[in-house]
Write the structure tokens for this entry.
Amino acid sequence: MTSILITGGAGFIGSHTALVLLEAGHSLVVLDNFANSSPESLRRLLELAGPDAEARLTVATGDIRIRDDLERAFAAAPAGQPIEAVIHFAGLKAVGESVQHPLRYWDVNLGGSRQLLAAMQAQGCRTLVFSSSATLYGMPEQVPIPETAPIRPINPYGHSKAAVEQLLDDLSASEAGWRIARLRYFNPVGAHPSGRIGEDPRGIPNNLFPFVSQVAVGRRERLQVFGGDWPTADGSGVRDYIHVMDLAEGHRAALDTLLSEEPQLLTLNLGSGQGHSVLEVVAAFASASGCPVPYELVARRPGDAASSVADPALAAQRLGCRTRRGLAEMCRDGWAWQSANPNGYGTANPLEGGG
Ligand code: NAD
Ligand code: UFG
């Protein structure tokens, strides 16, 4: 059993990962300020994890930018089991919002990470899994995209993630002993197959998958497909969707690898290696849900690439695992969540109708 601090553990990817880690027998402290999540996700994942899990999950409500909150989170570990590793999900992730509010993104994503790393150093904890993003690759020249592709983000969100990656480079070069995995996620979607936990975006979803789910469930009238003239097989944009449970299992594998090998800085793509177009996602979701997904073709969205697909070979080799769930399962499980929770976790939604 390892004692792990999970920042942002109540969020979409954090909650699924927390469940996988509880099921693997680990002991967790979740630090979250619930800026984009609800404590209900933690209550439900405890239900799924079974009766003995409750004693292994501590919730520390707080902000990664605040030193006292971090100290409180480290101190919340069970007696005699100090935090050995951190999985750092907490952050802001909306590309459009980052263009409007860059200071917020640099503050939370870079400032918060810096504060967390300082706290880890003070505590003598030097094992970290960091949520990075395929957004770093910007407009990729080469698809599938290897980890060696140039880092050329094109928005403040991506810049802030690139800056944290750089900081982690500098830190691991400065002092021996750091064990760090920078995991570059492609497009995480779907939900736990129970439909009890899932993605609960506030306001109008920016991303394809939650938007399609909300159209299928009748919360939104129709999808706008951004561009039908891309140089792809059917003209719509192609992405590498990864089931959130595969992603969660990837985190467990990354942690196992870090803890069992010599100190190192690992940089890995987490994707399936399979590309699917927007129109393929629409058809797969309609089929999984049995509900129509009306759509209209509109202009391209500024900043989009035609195609973004991971080369997942290095992750498969270093972590010894591959993604197991395909698009049909992503849609089936996403629908299990959306249909049982048409309004997500049911928290007040002050931004509904906003951005
Ligand atoms: P999410 O918004 O559901 O989860 C983030 C969590 O962090 C939320 O629970 C939020 O309340 C918390 N949080 C935000 N600011 C905080 C702060 N200052 N202090 C403490 N907690 C704070 O997002 P997610 O989809 O689960 O993403 C998790 C991580 O993965 C993020 O860092 C994101 O940038 C990265 N990522 C996500 C995607 C994606 O498509 N979902 C893709 C690539 C990378
Ligand atoms: N799309 C639509 N209509 C919509 C939303 C999206 O047609 O309403 C299209 C996009 O044009 C794109 C595809 O669906 O072709 C996927 O778009 P998403 O917004 O779901 O995902 P992106 O690949 O654009 O970006 C997401 C996150 C980024 C992250 C990236 C890789 O928003 O922050 O995945 O992880 F970096």
